[in-house]
Write a structure and sequence with these properties.
Number of domains: 2
Order of helices and strands: HHHHHHHHHHHHHHHHH
Number of strands: 0
Strand content: under 5%
Helix content: over 70%
Radius of gyration: 22 Å
Shape: globular
Structural class: mainly alpha
Number of helices: 17
């Protein structure tokens, strides 16, 4: 059945209604890191470096766990479409067991990452500060994963505003927590970088508890009996979560590690290159939260259509969502091309750093469209619970192609920093093409 303009407008409206609060949640989550960075920077360069290095090690571990839990979104949206409410409750309860299984190794791994810092020869003044930060922040992992898992569960049922409101409250809590624990107020010792970690733990545990209270008390969720029954692990449901989730976790980690590796390579070129890259990648990452949030809504809409037995609607919703993600990134690209000096000027006044950052931000503008296409296509595939092939696509696109191109052009030619960014653009563009091609092939015979 051919879709007309009113159908597109109706679907776009539904997608944005679900997706915009998710965008808000993502941006508020980034605000936590920004707050930590700003306040640590007021202490000393060493404390700021300790938080930066510690967070760089902490992020891939926790991101893998969170991205694995995203599996609950398409699973419950498909069950919702098929009106299999009993299985929605079952999946949610088994996700709580999965959170436990992810929390334990993550906790011990994050507390024992000193060897990596010594291996990559991190400055000896930074290592003890980063180590204390990691040990402090490790206690918050249960709260972080509980909040993430229950948030994705809620989003899979198209309930997206509560997580946004809670994220705002958590951000507001993080500011005084940082201030008290980092600077030693109300009779507490000044803990510096370590205090940043404990402040993060406080807000993450608060986030997890708040999300449990919301999920347990929200009337539409009562029928799922999520907390009414306590049973041991049921591997049938955990296996489904892992089947969808582990490849998704690996895909997200591959992407983050690519950008982290480019940041490390920038540091081998010059201090100016590293600083300029940090500014441009922060701008790109912030803008990326918009299509990323919408891609979660795309997964929900596609999953709901699959559960209702309509692959035709799944195809329509997937491509409509991907188009919206891309159009938004066209707008952000225009903004970047129009006022790059102003945007970079928010971060630095150093003329050398600013000049290079402007040129790199211009390149970030070039990959906005590829980023919108790839995250939209990936979200549509996730709605089909198709995550294994996309994981392979991400490995090929980001590492075999993107990293190789960037390494050669950035390190072995005169392009330098721009060469590394060409690699990023290449990897994202290949992923964008392949994800959308796969979604087309999986949904064309309806």
């Amino acid at each position: 059945m051919k879709k007309h303009l009113p159908d597109i407008q109706k679907e776009s409206s539904k997608l944005l209604k679900i997706g915009l609060p998710i965008v808000g949640t993502q941006l508020l989550g980034m605000g936590l890191n920004v707050t930590d960075t700003i306040m640590a920077g007021q202490l000393s360069a060493a404390d700021l470096a300790g938080v930066a290095v510690g967070n760089a090690l902490y992020l891939p571990v926790t991101l893998f766990g969170m991205a694995t839990l995203v599996a609950i979104n398409p699973i419950v949206s498909q069950y919702l479409g098929g009106r299999k409410f009993f299985k929605i409750g079952k999946s949610a309860r088994q996700m709580l067991w999965l959170i436990f299984f992810l929390t334990v190794p993550s906790f011990f791994l994050i507390r024992n990452l000193d060897f990596i810092m010594h291996w990559v020869k991190v400055d000896l003044e930074i290592i003890p500060l980063a180590s204390k930060y990691l040990k402090a922040v490790s206690w918050g992992i249960p709260g972080l994963l509980i909040f993430a898992g229950l948030r994705y569960f809620s989003e899979g049922l198209a309930i997206t505003k509560p997580a946004m409101y809670l994220s705002l409250l958590i951000l507001l809590l993080n500011i005084p927590a940082d201030y008290i624990l980092m600077y030693g107020k109300f009779g507490l010792p000044a803990l510096g970088a370590e205090g940043t970690g404990y402040a993060t733990t406080v807000v993450q545990l608060a986030a997890g508890i708040s999300m449990i209270i919301f999920t347990a008390s929200f009337k539409p969720f009562k029928r799922f009996n999520i907390f009414a029954r306590t049973r041991g692990p049921e591997w049938k449901y955990i296996k489904e979560l892992l089947y969808v989730g582990l490849p998704n976790g690996a895909s997200s980690t591959l992407e983050v590690l690519l950008f982290a590796s480019v940041s490390v390579l920038m540091g081998t070129l010059s201090v100016t290159a590293s600083a300029a890259h940090q500014i441009s990648i922060n701008i790109a990452a912030t803008l990326f939260m918009i299509p990323f949030g919408l891609s979660m809504a795309v997964s929900q809409r596609v999953g709901l259509a699959v559960g209702q037995g309509s692959l035709e609607n799944a195809r329509f919703r997937g491509f409509t969502g991907t188009t919206i993600c891309t159009l938004i990134m066209v707008f952000t690209a225009i903004m970047i091309f129009t006022v790059p000096e102003y945007i970079v000027g928010i971060y630095t006044s150093d003329p050398q750093v600013k000049a290079l950052a402007v040129s790199l931000v211009f390149m970030a503008g070039l990959f906005q469209i590829s980023d919108g296409l790839q995250v939209g296509g990936f979200g549509a595939l996730r709605g089909l619970k198709d995550t294994r092939v996309p994981m392979l696509v991400n490995f090929i696109s980001y590492w075999l192609i993107g990293f190789s191109v960037g390494y050669y052009l950035g390190i072995h030619t005169e392009l330098g920093p721009k060469g590394l960014w060409i690699g990023l653009i290449t990897g994202l563009s290949v992923a964008a093409l392949l994800h959308n091609l796969r979604f087309h092939l999986l949904t064309k015979n309806h």
